[in-house]
């Protein structure tokens, strides 16, 4: 598949050792820092991570499940904005209230069974709302991350048109 390859790297550092390592399941924190690799480039800010609170995680930190949903949402948004720009549709605002469903099995393992993106897109008064809605299907088909997962990524989009005379 494909002629071009892109490589991505991250560094994960566990910061949850409370002094006894993993001697006890309840004796360590699930805290971690997600960072860009130390490759001499300008570093990105670290992301404070943990596990889901259902798995003894810190609710104030991002968990892997939330980051997966955020990645799907962001990838869709970037493709959608690209496709709208190509089609002459002027998007003036975009927000997504995405949600994923993970099913946990009796053995403690699990997997995502679905993600639903709920983008609310505001377009200029002169833009075609029907075409704006249809481009979500194409963005979903183009998204690198959505194409890489084995569960369905659906979208329920709302298109709002700005009143005449208010667009950029």
Please, could you describe this protein's structure?
By secondary structure, the protein is an alpha/beta fold. 23% of the residues lie in helices and 26% in strands. It has two helices and nine strands; from the N terminus they run E-E-E-H-E-E-E-E-H-E-E. The protein has helices spanning 64-87, 129-142; strands spanning 11-14, 32-35, 47-49, 91-96, 99-104, 110-117, 119-123, 153-155, 158-161. It has a three-stranded antiparallel beta sheet with strand order 1-2-3, with no helix packed on it. Strands 4-7-9 form a three-stranded mixed beta sheet, covered by helices on one side. A three-stranded mixed beta sheet has the order 5-6-8. Strand 5 (99-104) and strand 6 form a beta hairpin. Helix 1 (64-87) packs across helix 2 (129-142). The protein is elongated, with a radius of gyration of 20 Å. The chain starts with 10 loop residues before the first strand and ends in a 7-residue tail after the last strand.
| Oligomeric status | single chain
Identify low-pLDDT runs.
none
Identify the strand order in the major beta sheet: 1-2-3
SSE succession: EEEHEEEEHEE
Helicity level: 10-25%
Q: What Rg, in angstroms, do the CA atoms define? A: 20 Å
Which structural class fits the helix and strand makeup?
alpha/beta
């Amino acid at each position: 598949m494909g002629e071009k390859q892109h490589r991505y790297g991250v560094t994960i550092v566990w910061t949850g050792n409370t002094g006894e390592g993993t001697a006890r399941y309840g004796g360590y924190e699930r805290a971690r820092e997600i960072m860009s690799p130390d490759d001499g480039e300008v570093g990105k800010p670290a992301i404070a991570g943990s596990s889901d609170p259902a798995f003894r995680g810190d609710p104030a930190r991002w968990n892997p499940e939330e980051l997966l949903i955020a990645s799907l949402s962001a990838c869709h948004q970037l493709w959608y904005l690209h496709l709208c720009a190509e089609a002459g549709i002027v998007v003036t605002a975009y927000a997504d209230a995405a949600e994923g469903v993970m099913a946990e099995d009796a053995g403690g393992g699990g997997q995502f069974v679905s993600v639903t993106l709920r983008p609310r897109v505001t377009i200029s008064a002169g833009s075609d709302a029907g075409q704006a809605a249809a481009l979500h299907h194409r963005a979903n088909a183009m998204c690198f991350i959505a194409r890489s997962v084995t569960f369905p990524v659906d979208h329920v989009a709302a298109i709002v048109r700005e009143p005449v005379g208010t667009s950029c």
